[in-house]
Amino acid sequence: MTIATVGMISSYRGLETRADWLWQQTPNQFGVWGNMQMQALATKPDFLLMYQFDFPQTPPQKSWLDSFRKGQQKSVVNVDSFLRGVNKERIIYLLREPPLDEIVEITNQNYQQAQKYCGYISGPDDFAPTPDYMPAIWYHSNSFQDLNEMPPPQKVAPCSWITSGISRTVNHRQRLDFLQSLQASDIKFDLYGRNLPESVKKSGELGNKWYGMAPYYYNLAIENYADNNWYVSEKLWDSLLAWCLPIYYGGPAADKLLPPGSFLRLPSLDEKGIAYIKEVTATPDAWYAAKDAIAEARQIILHKLNLLNWLSNFVDQHS
């Protein structure tokens, strides 16, 4: 069997030099899954994945990522120089950020530009050329074999939340307001994350999300966006892979992808939601009741929703 290589470009900082991007998401060496190999930096790949890539805008304007790049000037990008000679029908554009009101115009321009270069264009919104769920990636550094075979780790604490202090959109600010209200209650939970407000009690940043999830029965998985049928992010995958029972706030996409009972629905980001968290996290009973469903969901994430599995299927269909 011939192994096709898949290269990658992205506007996410830190991925430009990551030779091992997603290699932890396969049981095989060097990013092999089925008939393909994830080689992000390959100079002459057989396929190319444009992963949340921001095209140069006309007239030039800031992308959604620029708000995180304080003091940096955005350079002019020559798109053709990144395509590495890959034919259009083998170039994949996957947009993974939610269609927040503040960035919808930029998202639409990205889709329009992608049609010049890419044979397949998808994103988690209704106006994408191909609306679809985001194939799963996760942010634990554990090996695939470890995640696939491990029993539940020892649970010693009730609940955690890993989030950030980003406040650039209405949705981000709503989440931060809920965080303030939750900490003002008497609910016991541990908070981890970067750039969090000084006014909240936090346990610090994490180099590996595993340590802020695996010891907990429950994990708050609160999306930045919950208003369509497509968007669901790694917040849910990370929680389940750490054998947590997620208390999830998001759209209905998760219900279509995961088995019933594998996560709990947070009803709202208000007093009703706080009361729900308090009731659930008071005992580990809900976690024990959901353990089999969590185990099933983990296998679906690892083997079916996995981005490498998605890419392998794409390669099958276009080789």
UniProtKB/TrEMBL annotation:
Keywords: Glycosyltransferase, Transferase. InterPro entries: Glyco_tran_10_C (IPR055270), Glyco_trans_10 (IPR001503), GT10-like_C_sf (IPR038577). The keyword Glycosyltransferase applies. It comes from the Bacteria. SUPFAM superfamilies: UDP-Glycosyltransferase/glycogen phosphorylase (SSF53756). Residues 160-268 form the Fucosyltransferase C-terminal domain. Belongs to the glycosyltransferase 10 family. This is Fucosyltransferase C-terminal domain-containing protein.
